[in-house]
Design goal:
Length: about 210
């Protein structure tokens, strides 16, 4: 049986999600602190190469876009955090992957938000080839978005192709509580991959 909105766990009580978000935030802030303490602004280590650490002060968005808009982007970051909380609230039964994606994006958004509030810019330092310099918070946000896209788009498409002549034994995965994706001969959990076969009754004489 699906839980009602009143029975759902609010995001501020999902300790697994909050701990993962805190870990992403802590790693982001730690790496930025080390870069600020050990590498001068606009300097790179090593001086040459495809992969370097380059200390950059970014007043724009992720990957150096929209430079000089720190205040508007600070507001956008706050709105983004609220949107993530809303997405979590709208999920009938958020599975592991959905919670991981929200945690990564939440930790990344808060990491860059802390920089904007206390420094007036974001510290970037990961310099890969011709790609704009970025940081762990940017990576966390992008990875979280990709995971969420898979959960919302790919899983929904697979569920739409379900066979109409069977019924699932579980509304959610009995292993991890994730969403079950309907398949022609059963179902598969979108999070842990466990499979379940559909038992169909036979007509008399078959």
């Amino acid at each position: 049986m699906l839980r009602s909105r009143r029975d759902r766990t609010p995001i501020y009580r999902d300790w697994t999600l909050l701990q993962l978000a805190a870990l992403a935030l802590a790693l982001d802030q730690l790496t930025k602190f080390v870069v600020r303490q050990t590498l001068e602004w606009h300097h790179s280590w090593p001086a040459y190469g495809f992969f370097r650490f380059t200390h950059v002060q970014n007043t724009g968005s992720a990957f150096g876009l929209f430079q000089g808009n720190n205040l508007p982007l600070l507001i956008v970051s706050l709105v983004g955090v609220a949107v993530l909380a809303y997405i979590y609230h709208t999920q009938e039964r958020p599975g592991i992957l959905m919670r991981v994606s929200i945690a990564l994006m939440l930790g990344g958004a808060l990491g860059n938000l802390v920089d904007r509030m206390w420094q007036g810019h974001v510290t970037d330092f990961i310099d890969v080839g011709p790609w704009p310099v970025f940081n762990l918070a940017d990576s966390s946000i992008v990875i979280g978005l990709l995971i969420m896209a898979w959960v919302l788009v790919v899983s929904r498409d697979q569920s739409a192709a379900a066979a109409p002549d069977g019924a699932l034994s579980y509304a959610a995965c009995p292993i991890c509580d994730g969403a079950m994706i309907s398949l022609p001969n059963g179902a598969r959990c979108a999070d842990c991959g466990v499979r379940e076969r559909i038992l169909r009754s036979r007509e008399p004489g078959q």
